[in-house]
Amino acid sequence: MTNNIQNDKFFTDHDYDGIQELNNPSPYWVLFLFLGTIVFSLFYAVHYFGFPNNGRDQISEYNKQMALAGKQSSDQGPSDMMAAAVFTKEQMAEGAKLFTEKGCIACHGMKGEGNAIGPNMTDKFWIHGCKPAELAKVITDGIPEKGMAPYKSMMTDAQIRSSVAYILGTLVGSNPPNAKAPQGVECK
Ligand code: HEC
Asked: What is the pLDDT of residues 163-177, one digit of tens each?
């Protein structure tokens, strides 16, 4: 089909059943931008999805984030206090003193062997958890309904840490006479 304005600079020579295309190309800068995005997408796809084992694909990123989150949550909260269960001699000595001074011996025995009231602190069995932070929590908040008093208003955090150090570092495994039968779950 011919058209007398076919060659007009306003139309291209594309003609579909009389429907003509305006000669209105996009400016070069738009074209280059468009081509640029295609080139960029190739780089992007290879870098973030395709390149084998570069650790940048979604599954690797997910695993990295999960590992990080796991590490952060175990670094936070009450367990933070005892995250590194390294007890110094000074802490253990202070804890020993506190064990008498704060009256722990009344319910846990002179040597932590336990008595009719409180459990044995020298075996590997624990009612409220194995971790230093869990012991610290029992001392801090107590188990009032079972007769274990909360010490948070009577001891500083450092003193509570020292008590845990004494219990885990000195008492556990000390095998005192008349030790009370184990209670709770054995901790490795
Ligand atoms: C009035 C008695 C009493 C006094 C004083 C006392 N406790 Fe306890 N304690 C208990 C009882 C009873 C339990 C067991 C609670 C339970 O069965 O849930 C306990 C449990 C604990 C536990 C957890 C044991 C486990 O198996 O999980 C720790 C740790 C502990 N006491 C430390 C101390 C320290 C340190 C002191 C002194 C600062 C102290 N207690 C003073 C009665 C006492």
From this structure: 999 999 899 989 999
For the segment 43-73, what is each residue's pLDDT rounded down to a tens digit? 998 888 867 777 888 888 888 888 888 766 6
How far, in Å, CA of 135 to CA of 165, rounded? 10
Determine the residue type at 112: G
Angstrom distance (rounded) from CA 121 to CA 108:
7
Closest C-alpha to ligand 1, atom 19? 148
Judge if the beta carbon of residue 55 lies within 6 A of ligand 1: no
Question: Which residues does 158 contact at the CB level (< 8 Å), separation at least 6?
Answer: none
Unique residue bearing structure tokens 């060659």: 7
Rg, C-alpha atoms of the chain: 36
Q: Both tokens of residue 132?
A: 């230093």
- Residue nearest atom 40 in ligand 1 by C-alpha distance: 104
Pocket test for ligand 1, best of 138, 146, 160, 162 (most atoms within 8 A of CB): 138
Does the beta carbon of 96 sit less than 6 angstroms from any atom of ligand 1?
A: no
Instruction: Tell me, using a 6 A CB cutoff, whether residue 166 lines ligand 1.
Output: no
pLDDT number for residue 9: 74
- pLDDT tens for 58-117 read 888 888 888 888 766 655 444 443 445 678 889 999 999 999 999 999 999 999 999 999
Which residue has 């008349």 as its token pair? 178
